[in-house]
Structures are given as C-alpha cells and as structure tokens.
C-alpha cells in the first residue's frame, strides 16, 4: 500500500510539473516576444520534459536585412541605390536619397517650392550639388543656366513640391527631356513628378513617375497624392 501511494504521489507530481512547464512555455513565449519585438528579434523558449530533467533552450531570430535608402531589395554590384518622393501638397517637402545618403529633405531644410534637383557623380555615387528652383513665383532663367552647366556622366534626380510647372518654358522642358525624361512635356500645374536621369544619356530613363493634378482624383485638396520611386542606377563605366 505504501509503495502504491508513493507511485501515485510521484505520478501526480510529474503531471503537475508537466502542466506547469507547458504554461511556463506559453507565458514566456508571449512575454518575451512582446518585450523584444521592438528590437527586431524574438526569443523562443522550448521546454523538454524527460523522466528526470527539464531542459530549456532558446533560439534567437536574426534581424531582417535593411537595404540602402530603405529600398525593397539590394542593388547588384556597380549600381547605386536610390529612393525618392515628391512633396505632399505644399506642406511636406520632397526627399531624395542615394546610397544611404539623404541628399534633400525637409529635415535637412534644403528643399523648396518648385523643382528640387540633386546631382550625383555617375562613377562614384558622390553628391555634387543640390538646388531648388521656384517654378511658381520665380524665374526660369537660373534653372535653364543650371541645366546647361551639368557635366556629362552626372546623375540627375528631380522632384516637385507644390507647383513645378507654371514657369517652365519650352527650352527648360527640352533640356530636361535630354536628360531622359518623357513626362516633362506633359508636366502641368501642381502635378506630382519624380525623375532620375543623366547628362549624356542615350535612351529614355526608366526612372520616372508622374501623377496629374485632377480635382476628381486628388488625395489632397488641390494636389494629387505623393509619388514615390526607388531603384538601382547603373554606375557609369569608362
């Protein structure tokens, strides 16, 4: 009888321990997962019950990869990663990033109404210049002179903010078209537009997005939604 009672006690003890172990596993998974979620990794606890011992092991998930400028996938060798966005109405300025270097943004305080332009060395990916030209209340002449001064082999990135078209004339549009743009001829009042081309390009650029200002479809009152674009620019070869 004594031996039978001992077996019953042992069985109850093991059963209780097993149940507690399962509960412990669930609680720890939930709590630790929540705690470390914001640090981009989680910990899983695995409880293994044997006849004599309880083994606990932990597995850490690796941090998800981050690509330059936050683009969706890595660029191949001899390519420069870029990501850009037009302005949002007349409130938030455009943003231009190349090779993880934010060249223009509202935070950097170097953007403005009109067409925002960043120049990048086509061989090294180094930033050369950033400027914006007011195409609503400004003069197109300085913009034309700037476009004419761009050297061959230079990557040119442009994004509109508020209005980038009112003061554009035929000469300015032609110079931008020579950089590889196809939408510049149709760019109108308060359209949103981003473009990446190059001086001396032989074909039309594949990097261009354009949304027309349309009161029936505009996301903001008087302005269309923000237009974004990302990609990999081929490095200029000698």
From TrEMBL:
Its main location: secreted. It holds the Pfam family ILEI. GO terms for molecular function: carbohydrate binding. It comes from the Eukaryota. InterPro entries: FAM3, ILEI/PANDER_dom, ILEI_FAM3C. CDD domains: ILEI_FAM3C. It is found in: Secreted. Keywords: Disulfide bond, Lectin, Secreted, Signal. PROSITE patterns: GG_LECTIN. The keyword Signal applies. Residues 113-200 form the ILEI/PANDER domain. Coiled coil: none annotated. One of its GO terms (cellular component) is extracellular region. The keyword ATP-binding does not apply. Belongs to the FAM3 family. This is FAM3C protein. The gene is Fam3c.
């Amino acid at each position: 009888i004594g031996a039978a009672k001992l077996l019953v006690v042992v069985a109850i003890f093991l059963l209780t321990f097993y149940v507690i172990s399962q509960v412990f596993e669930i609680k720890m998974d939930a709590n630790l997962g929540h705690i470390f979620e914001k640090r981009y990794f989680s910990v899983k606890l695995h409880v293994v019950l044997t006849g004599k011992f309880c083994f606990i092991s932990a597995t850490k998930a690796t941090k998800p990869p981050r690509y330059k400028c936050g683009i969706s996938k890595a660029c191949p060798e001899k390519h420069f990663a870029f990501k850009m966005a037009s302005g949002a109405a007349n409130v938030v300025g455009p943003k231009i990033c190349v090779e993880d270097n934010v060249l223009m943004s509202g935070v950097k305080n170097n953007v403005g109404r009109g067409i925002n332009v960043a120049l990048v060395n086509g061989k090294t990916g180094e930033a050369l210049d950033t400027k914006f030209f007011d195409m609503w209340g400004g003069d197109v002449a300085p913009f034309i002179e700037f476009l004419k001064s761009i050297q061959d082999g230079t990557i040119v990135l442009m994004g509109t903010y508020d209005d980038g078209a009112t003061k554009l004339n035929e000469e300015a549009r032609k110079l931008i078209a020579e950089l590889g743009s196809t939408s510049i001829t149709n760019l109108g009042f308060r359209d949103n537009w981003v473009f990446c081309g190059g001086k001396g390009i032989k074909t039309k650029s594949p990097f261009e997005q354009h949304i027309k200002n349309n009161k029936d479809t505009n996301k903001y009152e008087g302005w269309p939604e923000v237009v974004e674009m990302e990609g990999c620019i081929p490095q200029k070869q000698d």
